[in-house]
Write a structure and sequence with these properties.
Blueprint lengths: L24 E8 L3 H8 L1 H4 L2 H8 L4 H21 L10 E3 L5 E3 L7 E7 L2 E7 L3 E5 L9 H8 L2 H8 L3 H21 L4 H4 L5 E4 L2 E4 L7 E8 L2 E8 L8 E7 L5 E3 L2 E5 L6
Parallel strand pairs: 1-11
Antiparallel strand pairs: 1-5, 2-3, 4-5, 6-10, 7-8, 9-10, 9-13, 11-12
Length: about 270
């Protein structure tokens, strides 16, 4: 993130509620689907969400997917209301972009957001400038990682991964995948359409941007409460600097601060 978030701070969050906005921060919101808070939200879903979102949840075949859809929408609405407290959680209205990315309808305040989930974790990223993408991937033993890499990664990325051994191969695979997907999502593209925008260099533990990397993208690897994820801004003002704030939910259902730090900001080689 060489421009838009070059002053991202290692923050442990001291944000008051409601969240007052000056546009100079990126907020990350985390929810564990197994938590007591999540169970409370599911019990209240009929009063927290509009009918069409409840209907959409019922089209999911697995109970796990139905719960995750409901919780994702509740988390998104609560995060947006923390951003704009004058709007109630139920008042937010969304539409789908040309590639299916969820976005606010035109009549609502400008705010960029993106969602990601893996296992029992759901993450929402919010920014007030540019476009944002987020991706979290918990290690999954059933995935055929090498086939995925061969299909979706550039040849140079596969060659660099081949020089990694054992656990390092797996860790760097997930880091590359999260960086690529967050970058693609920030552009509002499908995975296959976005690959040409997202080629990374890999040298051992170091990840760099290739010379042909889309100049509008500023990706970073972040750690929130012990979980690694990737965050990317697109088309953000070059003069913007930002704080990074991570929030979760305590046992009383109130927002709370989470430990958060920037692990890696890939840069173009000199």
């Amino acid at each position: 993130m060489t421009r838009a978030v070059r002053m991202l701070q290692r923050a442990h969050g001291s944000l008051a509620t409601p969240m007052h906005t000056d546009g100079n921060y990126i907020s990350l919101w985390q929810l564990d689907c197994r938590s007591d808070v999540a169970m409370q939200w599911l019990a209240q879903a009929a009063t927290l969400l509009p009918g069409h979102e409840l209907d959409t949840a019922q089209t999911r075949h697995r109970a796990q997917d139905r719960r995750r859809f409901l919780l994702s929408r509740i988390l998104l609405r609560r995060a947006l209301t923390a951003l704009q407290p004058r709007l109630t959680e139920s008042s937010w209205q969304f539409s789908l972009g040309s590639h299916g990315k969820l976005q606010l309808v035109d009549d609502f305040p400008s705010a960029a957001f993106n969602l990601s989930h893996s296992g029992n974790l759901i993450m929402v990223a919010l920014a007030q400038h540019g476009h944002v993408g987020i991706d979290i991937e918990l290690p999954e033993t059933r995935i055929q990682h090498r086939r995925v890499a061969e299909r979706y990664f550039h040849k140079s990325e596969c060659a660099a991964l081949a020089r990694c051994d054992g656990d390092m191969w797996t860790r760097q695979f997930y880091r590359l995948w999260m960086l690529k997907e967050a970058s693609i999502k920030s552009l509002g593209l499908r995975v296959a359409d976005g690959l040409k925008h997202t080629e990374f260099g890999l040298d051992g533990r170091h990840i760099t941007l290739k010379h042909n990397f889309d100049a509008s993208l500023q990706p970073s690897l972040i750690e929130v409460a012990g979980y690694e994820l990737a965050l990317c801004l697109a088309d953000a003002p070059a003069s913007m600097s930002a704080r990074l704030i991570a929030r979760g939910w305590n046992d009383n259902g109130q927002p709370c601060s989470l430990p958060c730090s920037v692990l890696l900001t890939p840069r173009a080689p000199a």
